Amino acid sequence: MKGYHAFHDPAIEGVAFSSEDIADLVTRLGAEITDDYRGRDLALVTVLRGGFIFLADLSRAIDLPLTLDFMAISAYGGGGVAVRITKDLDDPIVGRDVLVVEDIIDTGLTLNYLLGVLRQRKPASLAVCTLFDKDVRRLADLPIEYVGARIPDRFVVGYGMDLGGRYRNLPFLARLRDEVMG
Questions:
Q1: How far is CA 158 from CA 54, 68, 179, in A?
Q2: How many domains is the chain partitioned into structurally?
Q3: Which of these, 41, 90, 141, 171, has the minimum number of CB atoms within 10 Å of its CB?
Q4: Is 36 a catalytic residue?
Q5: Residue 101: inside a domain, yes or no?
Q6: In terms of residue numbers, what domain contains 67?
C-alpha cells in the first residue's frame, strides 16, 4: 500500500481503509450529491480541523458550482458538556442548500448542536454527509443523508482524524493499537 511502509509508526495497528478505498467512497458520495443537488444553490460546510481533507476531496468530486465554508467548535466544561463556536461561517446561508460535511460521526452530540445553530439561520435545506459513521456510539438521533461507510467502535486516525493533533496527514484511515489508547 502506497505510503504505509514509508510511514512506520508502532502506534498504528493496521489500515482500516486504504487511500484507494477512501477515494472510491468519495467518488460515490460526490456522484450522489451531484445528482441530488443539480440546479440548487449548494454550500458545503465542515468543522475544523478534522473535516478539511474530506471536504477538499469531496468538493472536487461534486460536479456542480458550490461554495465552501468552515466552522470550529470547542467542547468545554467537564466531559464536554457544553459547546461553543470558536470560528463561525464567513458567509450567510439564508435560503441556501447547506450540506454539513463530517469526517466521522460517533455520538453525534456536537453535530446535533451544530445542526440546531445552522437551522436558526434559515437555510433552504440542511443535510449531513459523513465519510465514516461510527453509529454504535450514537447518542443523538440524527438524519444522515450520505454515509461513506459504517465503521466499528475503534479509535481511528488519518485522513483528517487525529490523536493529539497527530496523524491527520495520513492518506488512509488507520487503527491504533489498544495500548496506545490506554
A1: 11, 22, 18
A2: 1
A3: 141
A4: no
A5: yes
A6: 43-150
